[in-house]
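note to self: dont lose this again. the chain is below, predicted strucutre after it. 283 aa total, dont forget to put it in the shared folder this time
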Amino acid sequence: MKMTKKAITLSLGLVVMGSATFAQSLADAKKAIDAEQYQKATSMLKALVKSSAKAENFYSLGDVYLQRDYIDSARAAFTQGVTADAKNPLNYVGLGHADLIGNNAASAKTNFDKAIEVASKKDYTPYLYIGKSYLALDKPDFAAALPNLQKADELDDKDKDPETFLALGDYFALQRKNSEALQNYMRALSINQTLQRATVQIGRMYKESRAFADAETELKNVTAADANYGPAYRELAELYMQWANQEPQNFAAKAAEALTSYKKYLELTDNSYESRLRYAQFL
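---
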């Protein structure tokens, strides 16, 4: 099961309205990434790095390039981010992530160590993103991911960031340890009830346990809250097709729902080759 992968708060600027607009733009780009609208996110982030050469903007651009498998473009963005702010740890993490994808573990460690070195001792974010980098690999390195995620949880001792628990949920879900995953997804939702990906992951786990009705409830809760959140429709499509195969007497109706849901997913996301291929398999 491949998880789809990865919010940075901006400080106040001189002009409050201008700062709020900029912060919202970065938040919108990150929301687009989460919704698997990678082309849209890339365009937004390219505009952001031109208007404001902030390390966070370069990191987010590099991150979306990694998710689109544009490794060289990701490296270029992360390198620009280091140039923009050599004391920001995120772009070193990004470079390390690119190194992992390129099977250069030694260089990855150097970059990860640099990220930790330049961060403050109480900053949990480099550990969080290092852990996520190990999980995002085609073959996740669970042994390397866990200590980093645990350190992030330790440093974020007031549990302010739901992303830590979302990542821990992914750590367990990728190993099909659903009880532990559910606990962490629920903790993430207790911090931010609008974290749609956590609910989608819970729905996916119900589907894998063949609790189809419960899975449908979770996923439809997401589409009711945000009708444009594409990943929920993809999981609904997968749910209905599995449900159809388990109940031959209802195959036609459930298969039709699967097709409708996947078509909606394609409409809301990048309509990638992989997604279109999977849709063709539903036909």
